[in-house]
Amino acid sequence: MLEPKKVKYRRQHRRRGAFGGTAQRGTTLAFGSIGLKAQTNGELTARQIEAARRAMTRAVARGGKIWVRVFPDTPVTRKAAEVPMGSGKGNPEYFAFIVRKGAMLFEMDGLSEIDARAALQLAAYKLPMKTKIVTRITH
């Protein structure tokens, strides 16, 4: 699973206020010819990203190339069960990525559009947000 090799601070604020608004960067296809774009805001965990990546990889069966455009770099902490209030912040449980509306999540190339759409749809089922499949406009 994806996680940073090193972090400057083990615990961070969740940036829950950052769930609003639209993405300013990373909104267009940069590598592949077809991609999966977020339609709503939310949080993607490293496990969800990995599950979607595996679903796509299995669907394409050693064909084509896949780019993962997101990286989970925000540590999310949890306090143990039945711990009283106070006594500090909990320990990091997993890493997440704050997704803004319009952000490109995955890209693919080297497949027919039908196969690529099917693979991206399988990946979309694994994600907790609305997404749409976008293609590069060719004239």
What's the end-to-end separation, in Å?
38 Å
SSE ordering: EEHEEEEHE
The chain-level mean pLDDT equals: 92
Secondary structure tally, helices: 2
Estimate what percentage of residues fall within beta strands. 25-35%
What would you give as the CATH superfamily?
Ribosomal protein L16/L10
CATH architecture: Alpha-Beta Complex
Helix share of residues? 10-25%
Shape from CA axes? Answer: elongated
Parts with pLDDT < 50 across at least 5 consecutive residues: none
- Number of folding domains? 1
At the first level of CATH, the class is Alpha Beta
Describe the structure.
By secondary structure, the chain is α+β, with helices and mostly antiparallel strands. The protein has a single domain (25-135), classed as Alpha-Beta Complex (Aldehyde Oxidoreductase, domain 3). 20% of the residues lie in helices and 27% in strands. It has helices spanning 46-60, 113-125, and strands at residues 34-38, 42-45, 65-68, 74-78, 91-99, 104-109, 131-135. A 4-stranded antiparallel beta sheet has the order 3-6-1-7, covered by helices on one side. A 3-stranded antiparallel beta sheet has the order 2-5-4. Helix 1 (46-60) packs antiparallel against helix 2. It is elongated, with a radius of gyration of 17 Å.
Structure in a nutshell:
With 139 residues, the chain is an alpha+beta fold. Helix content is 20%, strand content 27%. The relative contact order is 0.31.
